[in-house]
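A common beginner's mistake is to predict each chain separately and then try to dock the pieces by hand. The better habit, illustrated here, is to supply every component at once so that their relative placement is modeled jointly.
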Amino acid sequence: MKKPRLVLIGNGMAGVRTVEELLKIKPDHYDITIFGAEPHPNYNRILLSPVLAGEMTVQEIVLNELDWYKDNKITLHTGKQIKTIDRVKRKVIAEDGTEEAYDRLLIATGSTPFILPIPGNDLPGVIGYRDIKDTDEMIEAAKLHKHAVVIGGGLLGLEAANGLKLRGMDVTVVHLGPWLLERQLDEVAGKMLQKSLEDKGLKFLLQTQTEALIRGESGRVTAIRFKDGLQIPADLVVMAAGIRPNYSLAESSGIYCNRGIVVNDTMQTYDPKVYAVGECVSHRGIAYGLVAPLFEQAKVAANHLAGYGIGRYTGSVTSTKLKVTGIDLFSAGNYMGGEGTEEILLNDPYGGVYKKLVIKDNKLVGGVMYGDTADGPWYFQLLKDGRDIHDIRDQLIFGQSLVGDVGHAGKSKAADMPDSAEVCGCNGITKGVIVKAIKEKGLFTLDEVKKHTKAASSCGSCAGLVEQILASTIGGAYTPAASDKKPVCGCTEHSHKMVRDAIREQHLTSKEAVFKTLEWKTPNGCDKCRPAVNYYLISTWPHEAKDDPQSRFINERSHANIQKDGTYSVVPRMWGGLTTPNELRAIADAAEKYNVPTVKVTGGQRIDLLGVKKEDLPKMWADLNAAGMVSGHAYGKSIRTVKTCVGAEHCRFGTQLAMSMGVKLEKMLFDMYAPHKVKLAVSGCPRNCAEAGIKDVGIIGVDSGYEIYIAGNGGIKTEVAQFLCKVTSDEEVMEYSGAFLELYRQEGWYLERTCHYLERVGLDYVKGRILEDEEGRKALYAALLAALKDAKDPWATSREPEAIKQFIPIMVEA
Amino acid sequence: MSNWKLICKLEDIPPLGSRVVHWEERGKIAVFRTADDEVFALHDKCPHKGGPLSQGIVHGKRVTCPLHGWNIGLEDGQAVAPDVGGCKKFDIKVEGGEVFLAA
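With all components supplied together, the output reads:
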């Protein structure tokens, strides 16, 4: 069967990205032909500024080598501009006469620089700033000439000016607006930026209108004259006063345009066979000029071109980052404020730091940062998530590290770090390696960086820092997705929230049903989504959805922790950290009988037997079961331990019976699976010897009852637990703790610890659900107890005939 | 070649799962079963840091090493890009519901 033909006009970032997305989800569906007016393969236009500044070469910014087109059987016509689209005969015709028929057409003709309608605008030496050719021309001019004038103090203009200055020219920036980057910055930040750029040697003429460009004797431009009569020398004039969507081709073929090619939310034009993406498009009246929205468009267009019909593009909030080395600047959203908004300001002109956050209805709606942009991506994430910031408002301006988030993210300023600085401590990845990968491989997302460098792919605590490096390397191209919209993994477009909602609302009870209903792109998921889906199924429909061992990570499948040499560790449960001589004897016997090389006391008040062969596990468990011990779940995304102090049972300071409270909690929670591991502690008095302040749920006994703390963490990031409430009885401790853990079980995303969950939803929300809604709390508590009813010891059930197979190797003799 | 050794029944390997074969002179071999009942055999040693691939999660025609998450293609034993490396593969077949490894 003959394949349908797809023709792409425009060999740039938006168009080619659409083709890449298409090949990812439906390879071999189309015969693809690409026309590009430039003589180059697809390159990263965003990085033209570093090329101009001499920090990178043209070769380094190529995104798709010619081999890529060949490997994907794409016919590429470079240097061929399309002259006509014949929509009746469904073909495109290039200026040189090349014709190509299409079944689907994708237009991605981008934009053109706006050339001021003034006398002399066509003189040699007057250029826009758009492509490799312009960049080459500037580099050449810098070798031969002295005076450069850049018209336009926007992002592009400033990057051009900076580059030309670095190449030795004397550069003046002419700007119509009252301050630089007035579309991205407020006045204060704009002035600070101007000062830093002046320190670098740039000159500025603000609120200045250009009247004419003067021709010199050689025919080349020689000077520029302004409306106020001032005239200054200019051998090179760069017009960077904005871009205009390039839609003349589409318009002349009769496709409806209105300051851009008008598309709907599926990126389809008024001609259903024609799609358009990128800067040439007008979507809901907006033409985007930054790359992040274009990539979102590409994803949607690809999905519809593939015939899947899923996904709508609904517009983007954009952020800005200036790529001038040594200057840190970030802005996003509605940074100017206005009716109904409030502002939080931090202004330190001497320290060169300025931050402004704009808040509306307790939500962050915009912000500007100058001098210290380390928290830019974090603010941007808060903004996109629409997170209620009421509870962190008093510390918001000081950034993530003060409010508290993952690991050392936010504590180091990515832009200031030397290339040799280690970013990912787990895998030993330096900043230099990450930056190199981002540039050479053309990476745009955290996931891509993880895949290529392994940074942030183990414990994940440096993810924030990696995002900052990404943001400072590719600038405005970096846009995180809203947390509740991030796809679970490459197998699906759906987020954790969407998957979980579908499981609940459509009563899905098997992974097959989930994959089918949500149109998974892979036949049976991957190592990322299968465990998540399995958890959502069994936590949403306990006793109904069947647990799938093959969707669990090995530790949960074999009820023991895999070690680096492939052996396992065995940790019997010691309720509340209590044991008996009999149990210790059984542990000692087992350790000797199975030649356990290492016996270790854990941080969770129990004993770890390390180095056990897999085939010995069931036998060892049988011995431990016989002595009355059960699995400690030291291997699971599940309840781990309840650590206790000796409490009022023995301690002269104790106010409550910490040990017995701890045992009660641990028995209640036995075999509880959760999005991630869960640790509790109970201390008998405020001296808090059980370290309850860094547990998912921490109980501190006081004379009049118990204080309950939630969402602490002692691991990847040290996070002090937050005070939830005070209760008077043991029963209440069980009910409140249980209700909070069930809420986390139902709403936490897979692999999200309680501290991350709380950071996402806010303490106020949890208080609303647990403290202010008594009925709701009781229902959550009842749901937890119902889910954990009849919990069995996995060490015992693993010896049943079908389950034990995995532990028995198949022996083959010669 | 053509000398096949009976290993186990197909049903002894869970779909999307695996078993380990201890073969005296060859060491440990991981045998995998996909959702479509295809079987594959690889040296049970991840090219990255020697992790036991038999303990990984099987998806499509890949297995993810349990130690550091490398993905290995079951058909060729090669790591999935951007990772690079490979492990030895063995000929394996199913006949009449029984699994045979090439001796």
